[in-house]
């Protein structure tokens, strides 16, 4: 983790963020959500958004990065966390003339996530838990057992259980590979999160909102006190 932390400090300095990576408490909460497919991550994000009056940033992150890289979001989507061809698409720069290298994408991603974190919001995936490791953001991991996720996905998309399992495995694999390739961190590493929520016995996203909001406030208060004391 020391190497990863040093690398993130260098990226944040390049993005104009203070060297210690610390962000003062923003006007609205900042919550990073990493989720397993079928674990109700998006549903919980929407519930949090309504309760806390926060925007949810997902595809909007791609739009911001595309603007910075002067390319179109459709092309950039091939580099995103759910696409299995992410590594291959770095070759797009040979055809577009644009710098779509891994380093350029990572720098813009870090810059965009840090910019969003200064004003508040819910940030879905894309290694935001790693990027915000020294901020006052709550880094939330939402998970569930494979069978529970498969039942939810099968019901939602009218799939068989076997088809649902294949879809879940592919999406979770691609999300994990995305984070590993860009930040050398794993979604299975509990130390990169502040809170892990298992939704096996929690089918109502609304019931998770209060405890998540309380966890954010406790973490943000602690971070603010540490900054003042430092």
Explain what you see.
- With 230 residues, the protein is α/β, with parallel strands linked by helices.
- The chain has a single domain (35-213), classed as P-loop containing nucleotide triphosphate hydrolases (Rossmann fold, 3-Layer(aba) Sandwich), CATH 3.40.50.300.
- The protein is built from ten helices and five strands, in the order αβαβααααβαβααβα.
- Helix 2 (41-52) crosses helix 10, helix 3 (59-69) packs across helix 6 (102-117) and helix 8 (146-157) crosses helix 9.
- The chain is globular, with a radius of gyration of 18 Å.
- Residues 1-22 have low confidence and may be disordered.
Number of helices: 10
Task: Summarize the biggest pleated sheet.
Answer: 5 strands, parallel
Straight-line N-to-C gap: 23 Å
Summarize the amount of helix as a percent range: 40-55%
* CATH architectural group: 3-Layer(aba) Sandwich
The CATH class turns out to be Alpha Beta
Give the percentage of residues in beta strands. Answer: 5-15%
Q: Can you tell me the number of structural domains? A: 1
Mean pLDDT, to the nearest integer, reads 82
Name the shape in a single word. Answer: globular
Placed side by side, the strands forming the largest sheet appear as: 2-3-1-4-5
Query: What is the H/E order?
Result: HEHEHHHHEHEHHEH
